[in-house]
């Protein structure tokens, strides 16, 4: 019985030893992972993805930052490297030949996951809050191993004014590439000019520009490592600050939608004052670029204010809905008199108008 067990162990050992040369002859990719300053990245996780983006091998870097991953077959693969707490890095596709060894060194960006290139935040807590909000918005769409996150503000080139409803045009360096979760990249800015792209293909050159009201901005090229986010503000030469703007508006009853005539519209801190016409329309021309507060006043609607920004060379259309407001009036004294009294008063007034008769006092 003992002899039989030893024979089984010997057979297993011989089988393992026979398999080792085959493993050593297998195709592989190896290299060194470092930070941007050349220092080795220790215990970084390395993953080998096949052409279908499925993981086929995993490992870790050693004390010198070196790694080695065995590929099951010859073909095209992608290497993903991730250090704990830092953004992962995805390589371009590499070709591994049968029985060959591909060398691929990787330099990790010194950028923590969720850290972004912010230009408008005052503290790190602001940056953390922004990163958290973006991550929540992209939840369910963003895949850390395949995507980066692009966000920013579309602004007018001359004035820096945020542009709402601008189109963010995105062109891929390789439009035929199949990246999981990536379909349509073009998007639009919101009311505050902010845009967000949750599934920007990682490791690929992306060309972006803003387009607003038929005016196109310049292209900019970005390349994101997987699992990172980056702020990229876009500029569009839309407004001319040297030209005056104008306001065209319409005032309506909030409850019934009827036009309100005779609403006095005043531009506060100026001498400009207009009145709405029979259709509720008003127009204020030749306003210099800037922010203004409009005051609306009507006996039946009280006084209301609205602030807006006037852009040079543009006409701004606004709709104002005023709620009816109760009006305080002096007390009315009602006296009841006989009907004959009214007839006598009418006759008296008629005689006075014609100069007939006299009045006894």
What is the strand and helix layout of this fold?
Layout: H1 2-24, E1 28-35, E2 45-49, E3 55-60, E4 66-70, E5 75-82, E6 89-90, E7 94-96, E8 101-103, E9 106-108, H2 124-137, E10 147-156, E11 167-172, E12 187-188, E13 194-201, E14 205-212, E15 215-216, E16 220-223, E17 229-231, E18 234-236, E19 245-253, E20 264-267, E21 273-275, E22 281-287, E23 290-298, E24 302-310, E25 315-322, H3 339-354
Parallel strand pairs: 1-8, 1-9, 10-17, 10-18, 19-25
Antiparallel strand pairs: 1-4, 2-3, 2-5, 5-6, 5-7, 10-13, 11-12, 11-14, 14-15, 14-16, 19-22, 20-21, 20-23, 23-24
How would you characterize this protein structure?
By secondary structure, this protein is mainly beta. It has three domains: 2-108, Immunoglobulin-like; 124-236, Sandwich (Immunoglobulin-like), CATH 2.60.40; 245-322, Carboxypeptidase-like, regulatory domain (Immunoglobulin-like), CATH 2.60.40.1120. The chain is 15% helix and 38% strand. It is built from three helices and 25 strands. The protein has helices spanning 2-24, 124-137, 339-354; strands at 28-35, 45-49, 55-60, 66-70, 75-82, 89-90, 94-96, 101-103, 106-108, 147-156, 167-172, 187-188, 194-201, 205-212, 215-216, 220-223, 229-231, 234-236, 245-253, 264-267, 273-275, 281-287, 290-298, 302-310, 315-322. The strands form six sheets. Strands 2, 3, 5, 6 and 7 form a five-stranded antiparallel beta sheet that branches. Strands 11, 12, 14, 15 and 16 form a five-stranded antiparallel beta sheet that branches. Strands 1, 4, 8 and 9 form a four-stranded mixed beta sheet that branches. The longest helix has 23 residues, at 2-24. The protein is rod-shaped and about 130 Å long. The protein starts with a helix and ends in a 7-residue tail after the last helix. Mean pLDDT is 77; it is low at 1-24 and 111-129.
